[in-house]
Predict the structure of SDR family oxidoreductase.
Amino acid sequence: MSGSLLKDKNAVIYGGGGAIGGAVARVFAREGARVFIAGRTQARLDAVARDIAAEGGTVETAQVDVLDLGAVEKHAAAVAATAGGIDVALNAVSVMHDQGTPLADLSPDVFMRPIDGFLRALFNTSKAVAPHMGRGRPGVILTLSEPGAKLAIGGILGHAVSAAGKEAFTRVLAAELAPEGIRVIGIRPHAVVDAPAAGSYTKDLFKPPAEAAGQSVQEFLESGLAQGTLLKRLPALSEIAETAAFLASDRAGVVTGTIVNLSGGALVD
């Protein structure tokens, strides 16, 4: 491991066995962080941990249900006791949600699934790590959103509301935790071009519209969604992970309370 951007930082990544969480964990470890990855599926966590260990990084895994506040708080306390504190936390947990169903056909349960799932996970993880940050040791909480937070298109009600909620949560929490020396920053990627190959739920999410267009999911991403961006391309996992590492580092020490737009220009803030 050769990087030093996050040297001596303790980083917790919830959803660390997923596509984005795993990519961020690998880059954090490469940059010198001691990485703690948590998630529901031990096999996926182990796969990421093997990659990190093979490159000489330091990593520990734990099975944690982020919807169980008690379990998340217990895990965060254990990490802090082991490492001496928590410097960086990222909630990269994904919740499968509907896209394409209009209000007339949308049930309350399907509408609320991403809202409750995404926001409860973000609340629980933030509440668990915050007491172990700051107070002379700068802390960073990173959140993940989606362009749906600002897109005015039909058929994504639950998705859009959950994304907008995550961005509002980020801004308000940044104001609350600033006196403790804790920065809170949102990252808003678009659909990630190489996420399906990495095992992301992106493949299942975009399968229906891709099939309707007579395309594979990869074709739909590259020739469909990508063409709606200014750059005519979607972000890659490595670009999200590298951005997260910079934002988590002391080099971004005055960045807080904002959303970093990695949509390729699908949205222009």
Notes: The longest helix spans residues 108-129. The chain has one domain: 10-189+235-261.
